[in-house]
């Protein structure tokens, strides 16, 4: 049932909470400032204080923000989005760095690649692949908790000298639960104690049957430090992507997902966003979680300003009023008023939720909870 705290009700009416409490007291209800009352009581109080009440359902505010699917026919192929997962020290960062150094799109000689949480590379055959470059498990879980799907393919890194470990199993479970196909990269193949065969049989215990053992899971032996078979890995990703037949419509307002966000001293709130459908443009008004902004600049993984970003492209957005959170879904809205309506509604929802969680007479102010 819908509820609201006394404080929040007072805020929304621009009345004093103490007057709300007094009115409730007259009706025989003893309440404190952080107590919650139901929506019907709140409406009675508000009307008694001379306010007009408009009750807004979530479906009204959130309506039409995200389109369920791209219209048939309008969708065109888009690059796959890949997350690298695996046990700690098995070489996730090394592999991401090695791929990035060798294949970054349009990387000038010795060019400075900027860390924006994701980057795009070119496969030997010329197709594009987007890698999400954030600590795999947390980002993946955060996004899934918000019901968002950011990844098309998981590359599971398993060190050949260490084998399947707890976080390897965890990654397998995450990917399976999300219905995301896995490509196995057996890493550190250059090492003395490398036992790739053992890795393959251990994976069987987690119901991952690689191709060389008669299964369907794509696999490759790599060395991140010696840069062995990185092209092969990219080819496998392209192959898997082809099987998935990934498409999106670029000719519509953008939708996407926040991969990282921070408050930059010089540039203000900066959000790295993966565009998932549509095309994001300068001047667009965007909402993500309970923040909104007008796109002032879009910056790619090379640190270059770009005028627009289409499906599967990661970009930094400058122009947010505040930093959204990783995993927040991004949508373009018609105008500032709509952006405010959505984000103010979400901020209220968050406050109400926090207040409800803190329980009755919990003491602490609502603001402290945020
Ligand atoms: P992460 O925790 O999965 O991100 O692993 P890192 O990329 O930080 O790598 C952990 C350690 O393994 C580092 O000391 C790397 O230099 C080393 N390492 C990573 N890949 C390879 C590889 O292919 N061969 C060898 N010999 N060492 C590697
Ligand atoms: Mg790492």
From TrEMBL:
Protein's recorded name: Translation initiation factor IF-2
Subcellular location as annotated: Cytoplasm
Biological function: One of the essential components for the initiation of protein synthesis. Protects formylmethionyl-tRNA from spontaneous hydrolysis and promotes its binding to the 30S ribosomal subunits. Also involved in the hydrolysis of GTP during the formation of the 70S ribosomal complex.
Family statement drawn from the similarity comment of this UniProt entry: Belongs to the TRAFAC class translation factor GTPase superfamily. Classic translation factor GTPase family. IF-2 subfamily.
UniProtKB keywords: Cytoplasm, GTP-binding, Initiation factor, Nucleotide-binding, Protein biosynthesis
A GO term for molecular function: GTP binding
Single GO cellular component term: cytosol
Residue numbers binding GTP: 86-93, 133-137, 187-190
Domain Tr-type G: 77-247
Gene source species: Terrihabitans soli
């Amino acid at each position: 049932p819908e509820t609201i705290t006394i404080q929040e009700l007072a805020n929304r009416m621009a009345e004093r909470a103490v007057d709300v409490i007094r009115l409730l007291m007259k009706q025989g209800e003893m309440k404190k400032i952080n107590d919650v009352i139901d929506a019907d009581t709140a409406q009675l109080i508000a009307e008694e204080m001379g306010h007009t009440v408009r009750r807004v359902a979530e479906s009204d505010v959130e309506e039409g923000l995200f389109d369920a699917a791209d219209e048939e026919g309008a969708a065109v192929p888009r690059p796959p989005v890949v997350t690298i997962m695996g046990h700690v020290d098995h070489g996730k960062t090394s592999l991401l760095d090695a791929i990035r150094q060798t294949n970054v799109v349009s990387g000038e000689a010795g060019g400075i690649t900027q860390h924006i949480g994701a980057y795009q590379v070119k496969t030997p055959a010329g197709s594009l692949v987007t890698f999400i470059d954030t600590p795999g498990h947390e980002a993946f879980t955060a996004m899934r908790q918000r019901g968002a799907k950011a990844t098309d393919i998981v590359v599971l890194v398993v060190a050949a000298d260490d084998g399947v470990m707890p976080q390897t199993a965890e990654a397998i479970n995450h990917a399976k639960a999300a219905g995301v196909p896995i490509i196995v990269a057996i890493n550190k193949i250059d090492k003395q104690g490398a036992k790739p065969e053992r890795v393959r049989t251990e994976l069987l215990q987690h119901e991952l049957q690689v191709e060389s053992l008669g299964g369907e899971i794509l696999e490759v032996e790599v060395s991140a430090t010696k840069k062995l078979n990185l092209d092969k890995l990219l080819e496998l990703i392209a192959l898997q992507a082809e099987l998935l037949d990934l498409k999106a419509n670029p000719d519509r307002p953008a939708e996407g997902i926040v991969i990282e966000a921070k408050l930059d001293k010089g540039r203000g709130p900066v959000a790295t966003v993966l565009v998932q459908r549509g095309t994001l443009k300068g001047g667009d008004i965007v909402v993500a979680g309970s923040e909104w902004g007008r796109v002032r600049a879009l910056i790619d993984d090379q640190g270059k300003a770009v005028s627009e970003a289409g499906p599967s492209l990661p970009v930094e957005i400058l122009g947010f009023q505040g930093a959204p959170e990783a995993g927040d879904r991004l949508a373009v809205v018609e105008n500032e008023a709509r952006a405010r309506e959505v984000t103010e509604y979400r901020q209220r929802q968050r406050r109400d939720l926090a207040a409800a969680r803190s329980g009755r007479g919990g003491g602490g102010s609502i603001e402290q909870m945020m």
